[in-house]
Amino acid sequence: MVDSAYTLFERQQTERGIDVEQVKEHLKALKIETPSWGYGDSGTRFKVFKQTGIPRNAFEKLEDAAQVHHFTGICPSVALHIPWDKVEDYAQLQQHASHLGLTLGAINPNLFQEDDYIFGSLCNLQPAIRRRAIDHVLECIEVARTVNSSIISLWLADGTNYPGQDSIRGRKHRLFESLQEIYQALAPEMRLLIEYKFFEPAFYHTDLGDWGMAYNMALKLGPQAEVLVDTGHHAQGTNVEQIVAYLLDEQKLGGFHFNSRKYADDDLIVGSVNPYELFLIFYQIREALADSQDAVRQNAANIAYMIDQSHCIEPKIPAMLRSVLNVQTYYAKALLINLAEVRQAQEQQDVLAAESAIREAFEFDVTPLLQVVREELGVPADPMRAYLKSDYGQRILARGKGGASW
Amino acid sequence: MVDSAYTLFERQQTERGIDVEQVKEHLKALKIETPSWGYGDSGTRFKVFKQTGIPRNAFEKLEDAAQVHHFTGICPSVALHIPWDKVEDYAQLQQHASHLGLTLGAINPNLFQEDDYIFGSLCNLQPAIRRRAIDHVLECIEVARTVNSSIISLWLADGTNYPGQDSIRGRKHRLFESLQEIYQALAPEMRLLIEYKFFEPAFYHTDLGDWGMAYNMALKLGPQAEVLVDTGHHAQGTNVEQIVAYLLDEQKLGGFHFNSRKYADDDLIVGSVNPYELFLIFYQIREALADSQDAVRQNAANIAYMIDQSHCIEPKIPAMLRSVLNVQTYYAKALLINLAEVRQAQEQQDVLAAESAIREAFEFDVTPLLQVVREELGVPADPMRAYLKSDYGQRILARGKGGASW
Amino acid sequence: MVDSAYTLFERQQTERGIDVEQVKEHLKALKIETPSWGYGDSGTRFKVFKQTGIPRNAFEKLEDAAQVHHFTGICPSVALHIPWDKVEDYAQLQQHASHLGLTLGAINPNLFQEDDYIFGSLCNLQPAIRRRAIDHVLECIEVARTVNSSIISLWLADGTNYPGQDSIRGRKHRLFESLQEIYQALAPEMRLLIEYKFFEPAFYHTDLGDWGMAYNMALKLGPQAEVLVDTGHHAQGTNVEQIVAYLLDEQKLGGFHFNSRKYADDDLIVGSVNPYELFLIFYQIREALADSQDAVRQNAANIAYMIDQSHCIEPKIPAMLRSVLNVQTYYAKALLINLAEVRQAQEQQDVLAAESAIREAFEFDVTPLLQVVREELGVPADPMRAYLKSDYGQRILARGKGGASW
Amino acid sequence: MVDSAYTLFERQQTERGIDVEQVKEHLKALKIETPSWGYGDSGTRFKVFKQTGIPRNAFEKLEDAAQVHHFTGICPSVALHIPWDKVEDYAQLQQHASHLGLTLGAINPNLFQEDDYIFGSLCNLQPAIRRRAIDHVLECIEVARTVNSSIISLWLADGTNYPGQDSIRGRKHRLFESLQEIYQALAPEMRLLIEYKFFEPAFYHTDLGDWGMAYNMALKLGPQAEVLVDTGHHAQGTNVEQIVAYLLDEQKLGGFHFNSRKYADDDLIVGSVNPYELFLIFYQIREALADSQDAVRQNAANIAYMIDQSHCIEPKIPAMLRSVLNVQTYYAKALLINLAEVRQAQEQQDVLAAESAIREAFEFDVTPLLQVVREELGVPADPMRAYLKSDYGQRILARGKGGASW
Questions:
Q1: Which residues of D touch B12 (CB under 8 A)?
Q2: For residue D324, what is the domain's CATH number?
Q3: ipTM summary value
Q4: Alpha-carbon gap, residue C222 to C128, rounded angstroms
Q5: N or C terminus: fewer CB in 10 A for chain A?
């Protein structure tokens, strides 16, 4: 049935003016980085439900990540979190990754789990604590250098819980000073991705509370600093795709932390709450990829796509597979947008035709397309089914309970 | 200066037509229950910052709670959380409380920290898990009987994270069945307070997601079931005081879990984010206390006022003192509303005069009033300062780090 | 291509265990009522952009509505709004409808556009204004009787803008008293659908602010009173499908006012913001249609599906067509959910399999299915294209500018 | 009683280390601009309730505004909205203002009420419409020149209602180009204040949707462009005072449009929903006024304080008085913050002491202080009472119904 379905799909899309081969090329070029911590136990403040078979260290996390790449063919790199993935010998870790067919991706410093950071890290009033935090990031830059990673992905939990607890502007100055030192330490090919978050763990103000604040910092730091968009880190109602478009236009979009949310930073499987939003984000990226300005096209081509989720009740590897497949699915749909048709409708200010041209692409079933792409990539047409049929999930049960968690 | 300030205050209020003695009587009658878990370590999913001096068991928690009562005179009871406060001999715990001048208050079952509860407790599809959860609540009812508590305070973390994960209506049926068995086990003088919550730890649907669902359950269970309003458990923008008024009017308001929030269920010190909202809640209660219907007055008089907060970065005892003092402050202000004046403005449909009559009461500085009330209650005029001057905070440091947490 | 696409679709669904003929029956049974006011000019508080060709009276509105039915085959009834659609002779209006192949549907009283209603209608403190409001609803019941409509659809704009402006509980009493009189006047076959709304035009409290309040009223009024869910009338993040499930389970779901929103009550084309939510609402309905309880099945079968939108910038008839087609599309997708598969996954508490079983149905392209259904209904396979090709849009331009608006 | 109350207040504050004379100086320096349109009829999309006595033209609006200044002494300027306040001879209007003791303040172009603007004004795809919109703003700059106003206050309603309706980045480019031409036309002493808004009237994306977008534009335009913060134009939960602090720190805070909201852009009387937020905004300003950096102090000193409300059900002049008095009240409270005490607590990272130092100032009753300040300004101690006792409200009834509205 795949064959006839794909034949039909191809004919249909060709008639719409879509170059299916080009779509396939784009899909094969898509790379999604999975995070080492996504394979560990995680939960809410109320409870971490420990699962059996969780990797016990960074090496085992890479093994699980390798499964995701093995079955999808599009997840060749893994993000690390230091110190969660701290090892004595990073070269050895990289070698392990390499044997598994992986590379090591973004290095994520941890600036929220030391007792010292109760009142902040890079923004802390105490110079000694800022020093410690800066040094930790510098150490992460060293790790990046060692493992050939070019991305430092910085999420700052800093903020306050009560009005007056600290000076908002004072903290802004300290943050910028800290970031400047960090920025200076970057190797020329490295990028510092600055993440913002609406709230949590801080409940009154968050030092990098929205894209505007992250953008302001990145702008003042220089071209190697860019903004990281975590799809779950916004106020209710925020038009995330507009922020994406804005950052692309300013050439300051560094990458994504993909996940879904209905309420706060729920960290659910990306695409599971409002898949249309994910599709619309990719529409903005696709438009930028076809832009007339070199700089915009270049930014769009260099976006770091990363998953950042917290699977509380799901089995980890299948949850990660689902996430990756969802991103692939909605990217594929966005590639079916007939941009020429959209532009024509826009030029005629025909609201319904323009809206329709977008939504129409969303309505197509891209399963046959993805099946063919996967076959051409040499991976199973249905990665989830293939993984579930494999014995990997059974084998790791031998690890027992009590693996890595955060 | 207190004297002259109070003299001035009394004169001013008397001229406004406020019966200051009656206000003082109301203030002396206010009782606020503090939660045992509010004295332990707590935090966010990212980090629990362990403090030195945290009580190591239920007995020491009561000792800390006794301090709050000692300095405020209005916190004579303490809510327990089972199993966090599980002891071999509850009679001994009660005796300890009694020696400290305290009683034991609401008993809070814990239906979210067992591995079994990963997919719910009272709503779980598996009968054995529901059985376990029901049995736990029945055990709590026994504890209540033993310690002479008349309130079972039920917060249900049950819910799902994804569409389709479980049948919403199926869970509703199971929940009702579970609650019926629990309700049957209540002693005649006991009340079952049913708490609702917008979200967290469930991120797709929460089985008791709003007041309407809790009300629906309470209504079908019977007169001993009432709704518990946690001030932080609502969608952004929700008019909480309207829900309070509605429940009072239906004689189904069981009590409060007080705390503040700016974003989600932030569990900050009550009154620290939008104190006007707390005041407006008390305005509805005050209006109900003066209602012409006996049943409404009675409901208003029997509200259980309880604190439920999660102090992540604050020293616990002072944070609890601040919370209690804030509730007292905004209740005092609500008592200064000239209801006759409000009603007159309402009858004339004079929007600005009515609004003004409410806000005016909020603007008064009730410090002199509270100082006099405290003196008459035999506690320090400034409880916070008195506590900070005492050596209690120093003495408990001997407990070391690593006390109770949740 | 339709043929081969449908053949493929049918085979695919049959292999999944879906009874395609039954799906088609369900789709043919779906009826969506369009609102007369949806064909008139509308806008925001800032501006109503007047379009050319807007119907000038109720008769012309019906003519436009007939187009929507003509091209879709599933919109045989039209909701009226009194006094916007006030005519001297309702029998004549009904005859006009009948000639157009239409019936007259829900009668919507207007309780917000008289100067008298500045402080409310059914809740107003002034008995004379309540009298006027009640009388207006009674008049609408008479209209319903005349035009053979069995639904009174009541949206109440009542509320206050400031704390203290009026007594929340006093208004609740007045509202119930007013509704009782209205309820008494219903003919036995009539239903009173009570709509709630989070806010707007009231900005402090809305007398029917959420489903719990509407449910409370409906419950106390009796079996002919039910709740009306307007999809845009909720706080951000609200799980609307859970409310739908809850009301179905209590047999109190009267109907829907469909529209989309990203922010407040945006009244956009239904399905244009988060189509997955619309699909999930239909999943709950579909589950109820297959319930073991007669009463639940019956409620699900009697839901009144109505559009209620405010097309500010869109041409009206195509916007209505798009809305109707979207509802049809997402209902069709919900019909492709394999309930047995979902239940099996639920019973195994297999979160990912359950979620997947739901989402999978959403991913299918139902275009071939809908094309065949439409052919069998005797309407064009692509109603939008057919309408745009017709000269109706051109012909009505003769009406000029300045037609009906609200 | 005022005397003794003030004596007590002064003693109390002096003992706290507050320089009451300095506080009074600050209060006397506070100027709040009221908007001409705030005196006209306004409403929601559902209904504009027409009041009797509404000014019929710009001249009469100034007369009403003069009352507000007459009774408060702090509202010497009035913002104009073109074309709502269009007159043949602006010099004559200015002369009228001058006779009334007023000056003309910010000039507000109207870019949303022409039929042409259905798809935007400065962002519109059609060059001719952008031209018209730019020309209108240039005309407003001319008006500003004529009436000696130095502020152009630009609110842009531009946005889209549906994904794909127009190119987000294309609109951004057009907007910047349009703003550049406008910026070039500014006289050297003029400031262009760029307002942002979360949503409404656009419901999918708003071209200037948050402070980050307005800041981005202002930064690229140059030093005469600044950001205007309308307190009601944010997503739920947004920390507005943090944005204020951020903009002050970047010297890009142009001014405020004050109003209150509980839900969307409710445009209620400022300070009526969450007065603590208004106070916290002033805390940030007060801190900036005392900053060590000249540029920050200078920005804080040059903030344009403007009211922008939509009084739907309130009598206009008293509503404006209440707004002005509220701003004055919460500014006064912020002036009572003991900054040295706050800073000391911050340096000791004493969360509760710092929070307390802020909230304490909020708790003071500033009525006696304001009464004395008003006496010294030569206005009534109770401006609202004085106005209500005057016959102005009666006299204007002669204007009848049907005055100016928007």
A1: 1, 5
A2: 3.20.20.150
A3: 0.97
A4: 26
A5: N
